[in-house]
Amino acid sequence: MSPTKRIAFIGNSLPRRCGIATFTTDLQQAIASSDIDTSIVAMNDHGDGYDYPFPVHCQISDQRLEDYARAADFLNEGRFDVVSLQHEFGIFGGEAGSHIMALLSRLTMPVVTTLHTVLAEPNAAQRDVMERIVDASARVVVMAEKGRDLLRTVYRLPADKIEVIAHGIPEFAFVEPDEAKERLGFGGHSVILTFGLLSPNKGIEVMIDAMPSILRRRPDAMYVVLGATHPHLVREHGEAYRESLTTRVCELGVEDHVVFLDRFVDQATLLGFISMCDVYVTPYLNEAQMTSGTLSYSFGLGKAVVSTPYWHAKELLGDGRGVLVPFGDVVAIGNEIAGLLTDAPRRQAMRLRAYASSRSMTWERTAKRYLAAFETARRGRVLSAVTGSSRPKALPATAPPPETQTGHLLSMCDDTGLFQHAVHSVPDRSHGYCVDDNARALLLASALNGTGEERLADALTTRFASFIQHAWNPDRRRFRNFMSFDRRWLEEAGSEDSHGRTLWALGVCARDDASVSRRQWATALFAEALPAIERFSSPRAWAFALLGLDAHCTTTAAISLRTRLADRLLGLIATVETPDWIWFEDGLSYDNARLPQALIATGLTMKMPAYVEAGLRSLRWLTHLQTTRAGLFRPVGSESFGDKRSPPKAFDQQPLEATAAISACLAAWRADGDPQWRNEAARAFAWFLGDNDLSTPLVDLDTGACRDGLHRDRPNENRGGESVVSYLLSLAEIRQLARVSGDRPRLAPLRALHA
User: What per-residue confidence (pLDDT) applies to 452?
Assistant: First the structure.
């Protein structure tokens, strides 16, 4: 691939007066300094035009769709290597800026989009446009980690498509403010500065209201408000807002200490004003501010900054690099500014921290980050042209599943049982054992019997069974769960879910274990432990018990209990379900897919179509929630636990969710014969192999180890007992699936139950 030679930028451009125009121009100039041929496609609003300098070669009137198409032709005919789109709501025409798609949909080169705003709660039109823009983009750039989080959780964007590149800043020496104060007419004063286009959301009123308290401690203080009123505000309301501020100043009697400079200044003048201030303040009124160029510039010049805690400020000013005050808190902002103005050593220390930490944000370095993103976008376009896809397919039908490796599982066991946790791949004895994981391990031992796989050693299977036997507390008629490394039980009875899961393992063991004697043991303990489930309130405990009963249900009492448990789940979904929330509870938690799986399996065995249909309906809904726009499996993250009727958060993702989804989808395939369920199972398994939000494999195919999950920015490098057993259980099912020929299930489809 040849080096990148030509880059075009789409966005506002100077001399249009706005922050996006300044950003686009600064970024273009920084890129051009690397001997790259650059061009700008400039947006005009409300029929206005501007006397643009080079390198603006094309203009778009925001409401004229034909201008967007004409700009696309200009870019395609100009053979640009990549297009850098600056996106902000309000720049482009159409509902929520939808006109920009008329341009993007026609481009023949990759697009890298910089999102200057990422809405946490978009309306339907805003969400639709945002999703279409990011789908059309090879890479998406945000300027704060909060932006990355929102793209992942709200817009389901895969992590490997997102870049976080800080807002650029000019290269400027660390200087004391005295010389600039004298030059600009503020000598002998302590100067507080706010700059930027004036509008009501900037919170200038709060700062004005704080001036009397500041003046009581620092009588020489001057508050300088530098910036023209926002053009849109002037167009709709004239200068009414600015006039209201000056009236407020007079009412407070601080007119000799507040100066409004109604100017939109060039960069050199702006840097002079920043360099003269002692404290820079951004008193914005709400947190939904993803990026602030004014904050970045002041921070980059080594200014002591006081700010409200909007998203960008919280990230930039943490760890003593600035001061955060509550929104709209006049007393707090006054106290903090007065404190800095009267404490020179503290102010100077803050300035030095800010300046030192901002060196990576200079436009030179920011341009290098963008150039790297452009190159990545171009490489992705070349790969897509060769393979027909921008990412590898999940578990191609022609590719065999991995071989089963149990090395890590064996290393996680001692003569007591399976350890809960590991530090990287080393067993962590400090957390001991639990019946949950040993029950899962017994399920795995049963799953490897009769499938052509190499069985676990009989002694190891016996060890898992022995742990479960020891966990049984006959006095409480319950299973204990947690055991310390010194073999002390940490409770008299474990959770309802751990009891239900152990019943499930016993039921499967009673049916499938290789040892006749162990099958008899499991049958007896299953019968002894089963009655407790009647008193439980946990839907997951009911589902686990139903899966055990599906494997082993030989008595009239057990059959009756199975019906009651299934009816409970059916009753839950009937009570909770709405058209857009097809689930058993008001929130999503862990092992979610086990609930529909239990209903499907029970309905098939008992020939109860109502159970099967409810299970399929809820599983389809869950499957949709757990599918990204890029077609990846994204399990409900543990950060969602406790949320009520809201879209699930993406992280932290855990292996047991993929395992549950695989089992449930294969149960659905056996129920209705739809081969799409097999595809869904394969897609969930591909999550282990790297088709996930971080494009990172979770498993070590040589040892069978599995990482404990995906955080927002990295995999969890620990490889505990739950994770390795979850992976091996999934692998056993996928390998069994690979042996089944054709698209038809071995069991009767759902329609046969209605016959």
Answer: 67
| Greatest CA separation for the chain | 96
Q: Of all helices (H) and strands (E), which one includes residue 208?
A: helix 204-217
Q: Single out the residue of 710, 541, 717, 688 nearest to residue 638, CA to CA.
A: 710
b/e map 684-710, b = 16+ CB within 10 Å: bbbbbbebbbbeebbbbeebbbbbbbb
- How far apart CA 100 and CA 318 sit, in angstroms, is 36
DSSP assignment letter at 41: E
Q: What are phi and psi of 144, to 5 degrees?
A: -150, 155
Partners of 4 in the β-ladder: none
**CA neighbor of 447 nearest in space, from 499, 508, 506:** 508
Q: Which of 230, 252, 226 is nearest to 241 (CA)?
A: 230
Closest listed residue to residue 300, CA positions, set 208, 391, 363, 216: 363
Cβ atoms of 510 and 522 within 8 Å: the answer is yes
Q: Rounded mean pLDDT of 42-54?
A: 87
DSSP string, 80-139: -SEEEEEE-TTTS-SGGGTTHHHHHTT-SS-EEEEES---SS--HHHHHHHHHHHHH-SE
d(CA 435, CA 441): 10
pLDDT of residue 740: 66
CA–CA separation, 91 and 113 (whole Å): 14
One-letter amino acid at 298 equals: S
Helix/strand/coil for 206: helix
Residues 193, 199, 203, 207, CA torsion sign: positive
Q: Is there a contact between 11 and 91 (Cβ–Cβ < 8 Å)?
A: yes
Smallest CA-to-CA distance from 704 within 471, 472, 410, 407 is with: 407
Percentage helix, strand, coil for the chain under 3-state DSSP, each rounded to 5: 50, 15, 35
Torsion, CA 154, CA 158, CA 160, CA 161, rounded to 10: -70
Q: What is the CA radius of gyration of the chain?
A: 32
Q: Is the peptide bond before 652 cis (omega within 30 degrees of 0)?
A: yes
The number of residues in the chain equals 755
Task: List strand residue ranges (DSSP E) for 296-425, in order.
Answer: 304-307, 323-324, 419-423
Q: Report CA-CA distances (Å) from 167 to 7, 127, 366, 449.
A: 19, 24, 7, 58
* Cis peptide leading into residue 15 (ω within 30°): yes
106 dihedral zone (left: phi>0; alpha: psi -120 to 50; beta): alpha
Give Cα 178 to chain centroid, integer Å. Answer: 46
Q: What is the pTM of this model?
A: 0.53
E strand or H helix at 709, and its extent? strand 709-710
How do residues 298-357 score in pLDDT, each as one tens digit?
A: 999 999 999 999 999 999 998 889 999 999 999 999 999 999 999 999 999 999 999 999
The string of pLDDT tens digits covering residues 215-251 is 999 999 999 999 888 887 888 888 999 999 999 999 9
Contact by Cβ (8 Å): 1, 341: no
User: What tens digit of pLDDT does each residue of 640-660 get?
Assistant: 888 898 888 888 999 999 999
Beta bridge partners of 222: 191
Contact by Cβ (8 Å): 440, 726? yes
